[in-house]
């Protein structure tokens, strides 16, 4: 397969729309269709089901995407690293993180990165969730690893560095604390302590702190919290429950808190991001280092 064929297939597999795929790749919708048809003739099978209303991957197309995507990402990182080496990756890089799990990955990546780029220095700092994008936009950090989803026009999203099971943090005396797992519908039977902050994107809040369950049951709310430490203290005091990544348990566990996993919730994803206008070879090279490090950690 040619590289442009790979990019057309993977972009269409993500967008499931010929027009949007063409816009993203800067080619015509007709060329997208021709490329897909050429691949299907070559393989002797359908990769996409097309109707007048929708585009969907066939089972064979989905398998092909799942097998091709990791190799494509590895190729992109190899190209990025080669370009970075050619341009000379030097200087100071400030990197933010919003969770202790992400901090471990960033620290490990910085050690490897500095060893391989002796003219670089990596400095890390914590990003507070009540202002998750402020330090990035103010130039305090050059890139960061933060909870997804983020959809902002001035920010470029890199790959997901960590994916962890979503859970509920409950007081040890709460009935949920005796459960092996929970359903997202159980949100409606507890009082949620949400985060608050004028700078938090509304879509991010709606994703992580919904006001109703998938079936439409309202989720009771307590007074919002500004800092994560406040959430921990108030949950332990029995004021309510909170969303949590199950990977956080070894870092923030304390008396009075119980971590219960969801059995039907999407995982919590921590991804890389940087200002589009400030993208550089150094930023790209370190983003690749974070991804490589995350894959190598247990």
UniProtKB/TrEMBL annotation:
Q: Name one GO molecular function term.
A: DNA binding
Q: Name one Pfam family in it.
A: LysR_substrate
Which is a Gene Ontology cellular component entry for this protein? protein-DNA complex
InterPro entries, per database record: LysR_HTH_N, LysR_subst-bd, WH-like_DNA-bd_sf, WH_DNA-bd_sf
- Coiled-coil ranges per UniProt: none
- Using the record's annotation, list all stretches that form the HTH lysR-type domain: 1-58
Family to which the UniProt record says this protein belongs: Belongs to the LysR transcriptional regulatory family.
- Per its record, how is this protein called by name? LysR family transcriptional regulator
């Amino acid at each position: 397969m040619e590289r442009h064929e790979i990019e057309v297939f993977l972009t269409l597999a993500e967008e499931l729309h010929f027009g949007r795929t063409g816009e993203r790749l800067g080619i015509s919708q007709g060329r997208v269709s021709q490329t897909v048809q050429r691949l299907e003739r070559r393989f002797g099978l359908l990769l996409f089901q097309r109707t007048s209303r929708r585009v969907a991957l066939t089972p064979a197309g989905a398998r092909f995407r799942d097998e091709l995507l990791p190799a494509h990402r590895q190729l992109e990182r190899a190209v990025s690293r080669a370009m970075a080496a050619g341009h000379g990756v030097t200087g100071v890089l400030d990197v933010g993180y919003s969770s202790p799990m992400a901090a471990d990955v960033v620290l490990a990546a910085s050690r490897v990165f500095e060893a391989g780029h002796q003219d670089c220095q990596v400095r890390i700092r914590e990003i507070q969730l009540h202002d998750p994008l402020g330090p990035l936009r103010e130039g305090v950090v050059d890139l960061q690893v933060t909870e997804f989803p983020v959809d902002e026009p001035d920010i470029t999203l890199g790959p997901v560095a960590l994916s962890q099971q979503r859970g509920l943090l409950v007081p040890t005396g709460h009935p949920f604390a005796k459960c092996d797992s929970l359903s997202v519908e159980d949100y409606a039977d507890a009082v949620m302590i949400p985060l608050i902050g004028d700078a938090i994107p509304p879509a991010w809040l709606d994703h992580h702190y919904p006001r109703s369950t998938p079936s439409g049951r309202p989720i009771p709310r307590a007074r919002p919290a500004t800092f994560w430490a406040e959430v921990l203290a108030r949950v332990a005091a029995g004021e309510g429950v909170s969303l949590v990544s199950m990977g956080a348990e070894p870092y923030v566990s304390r008396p009075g808190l119980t971590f219960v996993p969801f059995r039907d919730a999407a995982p919590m994803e921590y991804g890389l991001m940087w200002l589009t206008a400030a993208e550089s070879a150094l930023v790209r090279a370190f983003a690749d280092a974070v991804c490589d490090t995350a894959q190598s950690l247990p």
